[in-house]
Specification:
- Strands 1-3-2 form a three-stranded antiparallel sheet.
- The chain has about 120 residues and is α+β, with helices and mostly antiparallel strands.
- It contains five helices and three strands, in the order ααβααββα.
- The mean pLDDT is about 90.
- Helices cover about 65% and strands about 10% of the residues.
- It has a domain at about 5-70: Winged helix-like DNA-binding domain superfamily/Winged helix DNA-binding domain (Arc Repressor Mutant, subunit A).
- It has helices spanning about 5-10, 15-25, 30-35, 40-55, 75-105; strands at about 30, 60-65, 65-70.
- The radius of gyration is 23 Å and the shape is elongated.
Length: about 120
């Protein structure tokens, strides 16, 4: 079982990092390509990439002077499974709450005393 959810969700909590992930899901990109889409200083952008790499959501390879960044699908799939499990739990709880509310409504006398 993967216990790195905190790192995944921390990395995905920032819009810049989510944009990088969205780009990389479509295809790998160089740091320059990724950086070009953002209006921040390169050192700030590199900090975002570092957070993504530390979390395990992306990896990079350097060939010569070019660093290419790739998505790591396994951590994303793990986070997706966790979210799906949580959604199932909350769907069941909300269904139970709705059933209870309907039961109470059906068994609560109206203002005129009838049910």
């Amino acid at each position: 079982m993967d216990n790195n959810y905190d790192a995944y969700f921390h990395a995905l909590s920032d819009p810049t990092r989510r944009a990088v992930v969205e780009h990389l899901v479509r295809n790998p990109a160089t740091v320059s390509e990724l950086y070009a889409a953002h209006t921040m200083a390169l050192p700030s952008f590199m900090k975002h990439l570092k957070v993504l790499e530390i979390s395990g959501l992306v990896r990079s390879e350097k060939k010569g002077r070019v660093r290419t960044v790739y998505i790591e699908a396994l951590p994303l799939a793990s986070a997706e499974r966790w979210i799906t499990q949580q959604r199932r739990i909350w769907d069941r709880r909300l269904d139970a709450l709705q059933n209870l509310a309907e039961h109470i409504e059906l068994n609560t006398p109206s203002k005129d005393g009838s049910k």
